Amino acid sequence: MATAEVPHSYFPFSLFLLLSSTLPSSYSATAEKEGTPRSLHSEILRDEAVARLNELGKVSDAVGYLERTFMSPASVRAGILIREWMEDAGLRTWVDSMGNLHGRVEGMNTSAQALLIGSHMDTVVDAGIFDGSLGIISAISALKVLESNGKLGELKRPVEVIAFSDEEGVRFQSTFLGSAAVAGVLPVTALNISDKSGVTVQDVLMGNAIEITEESLLEMKYDPASVWGYVELHIEQGPVLEWIGFPLAVVKGIAGQTRLKVTVRGSQGHAGTVPMSMRRDPMAAAAELIVLLEGLCKRPREFLLDCGNCNEYTLESLSTSLVCTVGEISTWPSASNVIPGQVTFTVDLRAIDDVGREAVVYELSNQIYKICDRRSVSCIIERKHDANAVICDQELSTRLQSAAYTAVHRMMGEIHEEVPVLMSGAGHDAMAISHLTKVGMLFVRCRGGISHSPEEHVLDDDVWAAGIALLSFLESHM
Ligand code: GLV
Ligand code: MN
Ligand code: MN
């Protein structure tokens, strides 16, 4: 393993910082006592965890690729499997009013503040098998090791694993339905959001025998006083760990995000008869808007000349961290010989600086309206989702850094590197849970930094490292 400088401009969100703090010597002592890979529970933390990830990766609503959206039939089947695995690890399980699956062990002191460990069980369309699932499976595996050693009851605080029902927001275009409800920040209006077929969040829950009402949603909020903190382990979804050759990292913070839906309406007509000069073509307008977005997000300084509350820090932060994507576009009536009447597209916009992100949304909206006026088409911009950037808790991060160091040390013997610290450009349930309690995250290396793709891959030994790190973290609660 080699440490090396990563050029900041190379990876927008991978501004990793190597923490200079000295790692506690007690971890070296543990490593010497237990240092051989044989003693590291590879059958549970690696072999079984990898087998479970593969099994879960086959639970899909689609044939030939992985797709599991909020409360879909495959999500329900995935929940049944995960529940069995939670119970196999000695956890008491239940499903809540938003379809989140919980597995809890009380430890020695039922009234102590609980440690929550979670990630999501939904996926994007044509997904990889590790995004979300790795965090759930690793947590269950680490607890299963404690159970098999007869130590589960020795935890000094309750530990609860939560498999959240929705983080990707694919079905309802509103992320964190599950974790936001637990944190008490999901508005009751979320129950009335509909998917493309007109089915609402409430309908889909009712259809799965979950009686959700506005009251039961409000009651889902955990009492902050009952929670000690939240930990999430997730694949990096970027290339830095592979680049520097280290399996684990601590997450310093998570970029804020905004999702928009832009609807452009023009004049539907015959492709052969309407002269170019007389068209009000929403498709051509949408194309111009998308190129505008690309330019703004590549060169924010050029567009934000009058940037309200922005200062130099904001502009610099936007220059290195702003990323924008149009991932979905649909047209009506969508035929080759018809000038469309309507085009709708999504915008996903992320930045570390919340003031800067707000300024970009404002500028983008102004420019969109100007272009639509010039082209005599109408534009509607709907703000579908907002999540502010989150900074992970320092104390929790230091503990996770120690746990990651211990894991790598236990697996590889003497190491001289420090555990890298990364920013996350991807969103995580930790963002929603940060409204409830302090959060900390670990990242796990993935091949080529690829995610949201069937090419997503994590080495079996890195799954193992993840499990050992969580186990070591749990042991610090004994
Ligand atoms: C979740 O994967 C996101 O960042 O979109
Ligand atoms: Mn994802
Ligand atoms: Mn994820």
Automatic annotation (TrEMBL):
Subunit relationships: Homodimer.
This protein's record includes keyword Signal: yes
Domain of life: Eukaryota
Cofactor(s) recorded in Swiss-Prot or TrEMBL: Mn(2+)
Peptidase M20 dimerisation domain span: 256-368
Record-given protein name: Peptidase M20 dimerisation domain-containing protein
CDD domains reported for this sequence: M20_bAS (cd03884)
Species for this entry: Hibiscus sabdariffa (roselle)
Keywords, comma-separated and alphabetical: Hydrolase, Manganese, Metal-binding, Purine metabolism, Signal
UniProt signal peptide: 1-28
Pfam families referenced in this protein's UniProt entry, alphabetically: M20_dimer, Peptidase_M20
